Amino acid sequence: MSSLSGTSAFYRRRKLVDRLMTVLAYACTAAAIIPLTWIVIYVIYRGLGAWDLAFFTELPQLFGDGGGVRSGIVGTLVIVGLATLMGVPVGIMAGIYLAEYGDNRLGGVIRFMADTLTGVPSIVVGLFAFGVVVVNFGYSAFAGAVALAVLMVPIITRTTEEIIRLVPDSIREASLGLGVSRWKTIMRVVVPTALSGIVTGVLLAVARVAGETAPLILTIFGTNFPISSNVFSGPSTTLSLQIFQLGGAPSPQVVEVAWGAALLLVLMVLGISLMARLVFRGQSVSGGR
Amino acid sequence: MNLLKRIRRGHTSDTIFAFVALLFGLSIVVIMGGIIFQLWLQSSVARSEFGWSFLWSAAYRPGENEYGALTFIYGTLVTAFLAILLAGPVGVGIAAYLVEIAPDRVNRILGFVVELLAAIPSIVYGLWGFFVLAPFLRDYVVPVIQASPLGWLPIFGGTFFGPTVFTASIVLAVMILPTVAAVSRDVIRAVPQDQREGMLALGATRWEMFRQAVLPYAGSGVLGAIILGLGRAAGETMAVTFIIGNSPRLFDSLFDQGATLASIIAGQFPEAGGILLSVLIELGLVLFIITILINISARLIVSLISRSPRGGIRA
After folding, report:
1. Are B234 and A121 an interchain contact pair (Cβ–Cβ within 8 Å)?
2. ipTM above 0.90, yes or no
3. How many structural domains does chain B have?
C-alpha cells in the first residue's frame, strides 16, 4: 500500500515536470515571437507614415523633410542586378561541378571552402572588394556588386549542388544511353529538370544580399547627390545605405524617411523570398518519377 | 589521368565542359584565397608597425597613431557570447516545441514567420534597436534590474543611456534566434522516430522521452547550431554599429558603450586614411580568423552527428 502511494507521488512529480517543460517550450516560442512581431509591426507603422510621392521621387537630404529615396531604389536595383549577373553563372557552374564531377578530394575541398565562405562576415567580404576594386579603380557601383556577388556565389553553389543531386540517375542514364554526350546531358536534361530548384536558390541568394549594408559602406561610398550614371566609377547608394545614413541623422523628419526606406527594403526582400517559395512549390525537381 | 582517359575515349566536348566546370569550381577556392591575400596585403602597414602586440594592446588613440585590437576582440566576444546565452536556450526550446509539440499547421505558420524574419535586413534591426528597444530598456527594464539584488553587480552598474553593449547583445540575440532555432529543429527532427516510440512505450513522459532519448542523440547537432549562431553574432555588423555606441573601451558594465571588430570597421572606414585604414583591415583579418575558427568547429561538431550510431542504445 505504502509503496503504491509512493509510486503515485513519484508519478505526480514526473507529470508535473513534464507539464513544466511543456509550458517552458511554449514560453520560449512566445519569447521569440514577441520581439519579432514587434519589429515587423513597428516597421510597417512607421514606414507607411513616411510614404508619399516625394518619398519615391526625390533625393535624400540630411536636413528639412529628408527628401526621398529615389536614388536608393535605383542604386539597389542596379547593384543587386549587377551582382546577380556576375554571381549566378559562377555559382551555378560551381554547383554543377560539385554535383557532377565533385565526388573526389578536390570536390571535398571546394565544398568545404563554399561552406566556410558562407560563414565569412559580409564586412570582411567588403574589405576584399575594397582591396581588389576600390584600391585600384576607386569607389563605384561595380565594386559593391563584386562584394555582393562574392556573398551570393557560395549560397547558389550549395543549393544548386543539392538540387542537381536530387535528379534521379535514371534520367541521366536514359540520355547517355541514347548516345548523348555527358555535357549535353547535363545542360539539356539534368539542369532543366532541376531548374525550378536552382531558380529558388538564386532568388534566396538575391534576397539575402539585397538587404546588405556593411560591404557597401566600404565599396560604393554612399551619396546624397544623384548617383553616378557610370557603374564603373563614381559613388552610388542603396536603400540599405540610406537607412544607415538617414537613420543616424538628428532630425526626426529625416529619420522618418529612413523608416520608409526600411519598410520598402523589407517588402522587396520579402517579395523575392516569397517568389522563391512559389517557384519551389511547383516542384524542386520536375519530371522523372 | 581522368582527363587523359576521356580524351582517348574521344569525347572532346565533354572534356572541355568538365574543365570549364572545374574552373568555376576552383573560383571558390580563388575567392577564399583572394580574401585572405587581400586582408594580409592591405594590412601590411599596420602589421609591420605594431607587430604581434597589436593583438593584446588595448590602445586606440588615432591622435598618437597608437592602435590595438584588444578592446574590439573583447567587445566582439562579450556581445556574441551574451547573445548566444540569451538566444541559445530559447532557440532550442522553440525547436523542441516545433518538433515534439506543435501541430502541423502551427509549424507551417512559424515557418512563414521565420521567412519573414530572414527578410529583415540587419540595418533594420539596428534602426529598431536604437529607436525602439533602447528607450524601452532604459525606461522599463534597466531600472528593474538595477533595483533588484542583481543591480549591485558591477556588470549592471552605471547609467544606462540607451545605445549600449546590453542593447546590442539583445538585438543580436533576436537576430540569431531564427538560425539557432531552425538548425536545432532540423537536427532534432532527424532523430529516428523509433527512439521516441521506444521511450514512450517504456512509460516515459514527453519530457523524459525528449531528455533521455532525443537530446543525447541530437546533442552534438544542437551544440553545432549554437556555435553557428555564435559565429553569426560575432560577424554581425550593421545592427551593432548602430546600437553599441562604437566607442573603443574595455567596458566593465554591460550598460556602458563599446565597440566590436565589425562595428569599428563599418563606423570608421568612410573617414579612414593612411595607417588607420590599414589598422581597420587588420581588424578585419582578426575578425575573419575568429569567425572561421567558430564556423569550422561548428561544422565539425555537426558532422559528428552523422557519425553517431543509428541504433537504439544511446541514452
Report:
1. yes
2. no
3. 2
